[in-house]
Specification:
Its main location: membrane. This protein is an all-alpha fold. The protein is built from 4 helices and no strands.
């Protein structure tokens, strides 16, 4: 399953991908990253910007990928989050104790 999804993603990001698709996917990803990480934008503006982007991601994922591929992607994403959260928590509290003394 994971190989099929990776192959499908490589199609849209590879050098043989149509430019309008590759640039479109990359620009939406960049906007999401910029909006989520920018502390200058107020929360309401972030919500207004993120809702159409999330709707677009849902639409594209349903159009380009099968339900099995989306479920596999979500499972892998959740698995990665479960693995990273304890490390992130330990790092934050470790830095807090280290720098507070």
């Amino acid at each position: 399953m994971g190989e099929a999804l990776a192959g499908r993603l490589k199609y849209y990001f590879g050098s043989w991908a149509p430019k309008y698709i590759a640039y479109g996917v990359a620009s939406v990803s960049g906007v999401i990253l910029a909006v989520c990480s920018c502390a200058i934008l107020p929360l309401f503006a972030k919500i207004i910007i993120l809702l159409p982007l999330i709707a677009g991601i849902v639409y594209i994922s349903r159009k380009w990928f099968t339900k099995e591929q989306v479920a596999d992607w979500m499972y892998e994403t959740w698995s990665l989050a479960q693995k990273l959260f304890p490390v992130l928590l330990a790092g934050v509290f470790g830095a807090l104790f280290y720098f507070s003394t």
